[in-house]
Amino acid sequence: MTSYPSLRTDIMNAGGIWVDEEVQVDDGLVTSRRPADIPAFCAAMVDEIAAGHRAGQMATA
């Protein structure tokens, strides 16, 4: 997961893996760090939506 650096310790203490990247995609979940990362976040979201349903994800009706 990406986030503000100030949240690194909290995320790691909760069992997360913290990365310092403008966008991180993990099995369809897209995260980013800060407002400046919004262009990369939006591009990753478009890619994930275009990719469609992934195996193991819950299907919607």
TrEMBL record:
Pfam families: DJ-1_PfpI. Gene3D superfamilies: 3.40.50.880. InterPro entries: Class_I_gatase-like, DJ-1/PfpI. Residues 1-47 form the DJ-1/PfpI domain. This is DJ-1/PfpI domain-containing protein.
